[in-house]
Specification:
The protein is built from 14 helices and no strands. The protein is mainly alpha-helical.
């Protein structure tokens, strides 16, 4: 990689990990599509605020992760994943601490107006998002609970909150969609921790994958995608065939993951999985509109 100036704009862009923003957008898009499919017109101001809040929280989480993994020695020299800004010295730790404070404040300012449409319970939702943003990296991802947080904060919370803000209601179908979204997004964490399972063990980081082992992780990856499709079949009123091509793609990615098993080449699977999540969100959203 070309030389990157310390605390430069390019360094901050890399630290923000812009490729992860699509994962933050998918739950909001699915919720808005379901609201539209249920006969509601989209209120665009809170919709855009939900999307912006999701983006800012994702960036904040990436900053927190980069800072604490560097401080705790998880981003070591033998790291297999993409290079991280703090660990590479592109962003100083002091500057990252200030930026974490700034993005956390920005998230709070962005989310606060949602009270006007979702009520004061949105305060609790926002506080939970911020608190667990920190707890994920500093504690919970190190004791095998990261996958639960992905299910909650990339599935249940954003889908249900966005839908409720639009409609003032919730339904079993919305909950199923939120679970489906959370499960498919967790595939990204699974393959990330699958790649890092050996280095995580050396660093004393106990992810779910270090606890269950590589073989079980491979089957977990496949199962998450299958379960996501099956859960989505109910809100789609049985029109599951429209997701069949996506499931074929997911299975193909799984087979490549099994074949590679170790090393930096798994970063290709990480990229494919991120694209798969985005495609799942697009296909599912369009399907909800086509089969209301």
């Amino acid at each position: 990689m070309p030389e990157i100036g310390k605390n430069s704009a390019k360094a901050w862009i890399l630290a923000a990990r812009p490729k992860t923003l699509s994962g933050a957008a998918v739950p909001v898009i699915i919720a808005l599509s379901k609201s539209w499919a249920d006969g509601n017109s989209i209120n665009w101001i809170p919709a855009l605020l939900c999307l912006l809040f999701a983006f800012v929280m994702q960036i904040d989480a990436n900053f927190v992760n980069g800072y604490y993994d560097c401080v705790k020695g998880v981003d070591r020299g033998d790291r297999l994943g993409p290079e991280r800004a703090c660990a590479q010295g592109w962003v100083s730790l002091s500057a990252m601490k200030r930026m974490i404070a700034a993005t956390t404040l920005l998230a709070a300012v962005t989310g606060l107006p949602l009270i006007c449409w979702g009520g004061t319970q949105m305060i609790a939702v926002g506080i939970a998002c911020i608190v667990f943003c920190f707890l994920y990296t500093t504690l919970l991802s190190r004791v095998g609970m990261g996958d639960i947080l992905v299910l909650l904060f990339f599935g249940i919370v954003p889908v249900c909150a966005t839908y409720f803000i639009q409609t003032q209601t919730l339904s079993p179908d919305v909950l199923l969609l939120s679970l489906s979204c959370g499960l498919v997004t967790d595939c990204l964490l699974v393959v990330n921790n699958y790649r890092d399972r050996e280095t995580d063990r050396k660093a004393g980081k106990h992810t779910l994958i270090t606890l269950i082992g590589g073989n079980a992780a491979e089957w977990l990856y496949l199962t998450l995608g299958v379960a996501a499709v099956l859960l989505a079949a109910v809100p789609l009123k049985g029109h599951i065939a429209i997701l069949a091509p996506w499931l074929v793609r997911h299975t193909s990615t799984w087979l490549r993951m099994k074949k590679i098993r170790y090393g930096r080449e798994l970063n290709k699977i990480l990229g494919q999985t991120a694209l798969n999540i985005l495609l799942f969100g697009i296909v599912l959203s369009l399907s909800l509109i086509l089969y209301p």
